[in-house]
Amino acid sequence: MPLENQVDDPEALRIRLAALEAELERHKESQLAGEQRFLQLADAAPVMIWMSGTDAMCTYVNRAWLEFRGRTPEQERGNGWTEGIHPDDREQCLETYLKHFAAREAFHMQYRLRRADGEFRWLEDAGVPRFEGQGSFTGFMGSAIDITERRRSGFAPDEHAVRLVFALTERERQVLVLIAQGRSTKEAAARLGISYKTADSHRSRILEKLGVHETASMVRYAIRAGLIEP
Length: 230
Fold this sequence. Notes:
The protein is an alpha+beta fold. Helices cover 52% and strands 18% of the residues.
């Protein structure tokens, strides 16, 4: 067959390309509309919502967050929001966030953040990784609530317990919390996506570091350190 017969007609190619461009534009418009709907819902939410990009920098905070902080979106974006973290919580807060960001793992933490009136309030912050398309990582999304009053309701963490618990590795603390919540070592392993042998090894190291010999004592440390509700 002659080569020229294997080549599409130029006009047909032009029409095909125009159709593809139109479809791409419709897809972009659909994505933009979806994002706008999400932002509208986020701004109407009663909880504080934030998002970060692939560089771990904050790209968005909702209306509830801005009202809590008393600052503009521009002031909170990037690393701006970290200016409000209590000095005593800053290192632990950022370490937890960046470790989980690098590992693409969900996290849960508590820290103090300065409110618009200047008072530092305790927040409970939970974040999850975001993926789009074919599993492409696009950053993190999270929500935070003010738990100050809950923490003031008669419970004060034991300083000795806090020091011991936060001397554990992040994974050991995760295992400790799950076991303290009543899950078995096997269930904790499944929840964290690790083997039973690894979870049991973490459990043994927790007992050793806390200087205790049974699960009940582990639970008491978790409660006294404020990792779980009494």
